[in-house]
Design goal:
globular; binds flavin-adenine dinucleotide
């Protein structure tokens, strides 16, 4: 029997006219703040933490841009938000302090939170005052999230949370973590009995321990909860409904341009460097740059299409998984291709060589964080009814 023909398409949305003016404003602010010394391109963009720049971005109203005005948002479109994130990434601006709250914790509260939670958390997020981190992975549960063992037990007025989370990016700088935990013992339905709690990371019974990444930097952490009290009003949605919520949260996490633009600045540096040394750019070098630029352009078209689908209220899970899979592989390929180019073309700039070496180390994580390549391919295969 012939397999069914399945189509995945990437229709290109037209960008609203307001986007061009918005891009201009963002570039202007970034340049102004770079000159003022608020930030320097550091190579990690949304993986780098800079509260001063976050506050400047907040003052312009670019955090929670699509959210209702009553929660501090600006009620602008998803495509305008896309332009903001794209500009920050393309410039390599350190936007990590507000990234998670803007991308997923805020939207999660908008969709599943209580009115009291929205009024309490969303306005300070839009002002760049409070930061959130993601509490999903545990020492023995990463891809198989349903196997988590952190547990909250009901007590008077709230819950007592115990367990360990791991790989939690920026927890040491964040105010809150949205924590997935069991609020009922495991049952035959593996996805039942989980809840999401908003945990104050400064509360009693929370220990945050650093884990160094491959470059030796302190970016992620192990967090231990020892009977930490979480009030009833800090449960997101209904107790027990955490699985449905966390899968929606993962869709926000996987769909953005950070999955192919995190190290875009390297491409820019290579374009600037080629032909600047003691030899002119070779035809091979120019072709290679053209190939890399072509890949970025195709990824961008696909990613914009996902943003357009989100704007129409659709859930493009297969398309988003495809963009993340292709995008993260591109981000791993870029420093490798860059190192070859630097050698072949005799680009002598030491700073660029060092940056390419660091980028090669950082790039290992891209096909793991936010869902591994194998897990994404499983989602794609299921979506295409091949599994
Ligand atoms: C830089 C970085 C930042 C991170 N930040 C956070 C964070 O802020 N918060 C958070 O909660 N987590 C975070 N993570 C954790 C990340 O989500 C997990 O590492 C990821 O989900 C994989 O889980 P694991 O490490 O337990 O690997 P495992 O799930 O044990 O996977 C090991 C290998 O087995 C493969 N595999 C597993 N299951 C299957 C399957 N069913 N089919 C085929 N292959 C399979 C995987 O693809 C992988 O290659 C971060 C990770 C990194 C690298």
């Amino acid at each position: 029997m012939r397999p069914p023909t399945i189509h995945v398409s990437f229709p290109r949305p037209s960008l609203p006219v307001e986007v061009a003016a918005l891009r201009h404003e963002i570039r202007e602010l970034l340049e102004q703040e770079r000159r003022a010394g608020t930030w320097q391109p550091g190579g990690k963009s949304w993986g780098e933490y800079n509260p001063a720049l976050t506050r400047k971005i907040a003052e312009r109203g670019w955090i929670g841009l699509t959210w209702p005005k009553k929660y501090g948002g600006k009620e602008r479109t998803q495509l305008e938000r896309y332009a903001v994130t794209e500009e920050l990434l393309a410039a390599g601006a350190p936007a990590g302090a507000h990234w998670v709250a803007d991308r997923q914790s805020g939207p999660l509260l908008l969709r599943f939170g209580t009115e009291e939670q929205r009024l309490r958390f969303l306005p300070p997020i839009t002002r760049g005052e409070i930061y959130f981190c993601i509490g999903m992975s545990e020492p023995d549960s990463g891809s198989d999230l349903a196997s988590i063992r952190s547990r909250a037990v009901k007590v008077d007025g709230g819950w007592r949370l115990s367990g360990t989370k791991i790989w939690t990016s920026w927890a040491h700088h964040c105010h809150y973590m949205i924590t997935l935990c069991r609020t009922e013992p495991p049952s035959a339905d593996r996805h039942a009995g989980m809840s999401q709690l908003i945990v104050d990371l400064h509360a009693q019974g929370v220990s945050i321990r650093p884990i160094r990444n491959l470059t030796g930097e302190h970016e992620f952490n192990e967090i231990v909860f020892d009977e930490t009290f979480v009030a009833d009003e800090d449960v997101v949605g209904e107790p027990g409904g955490g699985w449905h919520q966390v899968t929606s949260e993962l869709a926000y996490e996987r769909s953005g341009p950070e999955r192919f633009l995190t190290n875009f600045h390297l491409l820019r540096r290579l374009v600037d460097g080629l032909g600047q040394g003691d030899r002119p750019a070779s035809e091979h070098g120019l072709r290679e740059l053209g190939r890399l630029a072509g890949e970025v352009w195709a990824l961008r078209a696909m990613s914009l299409s996902v943003a357009g689908a989100l704007e129409r209220g659709e859930t493009p899970a297969v398309e988003a998984a495809l963009v993340k899979d292709l995008g993260t592989h591109f981000q791993q390929e870029l420093p490798e291709a860059g190192r070859r180019l630097v050698d072949q073309e005799g680009i002598a700039e030491e700073a660029l060589r060092e940056e390419l070496a660091r980028a090669t180390q950082l790039a290992r994580a891209y096909t793991i964080q936010g869902g591994t390549t194998e897990i994404l391919r499983g989602i794609i295969a299921r979506g295409l009814k091949l599994r």
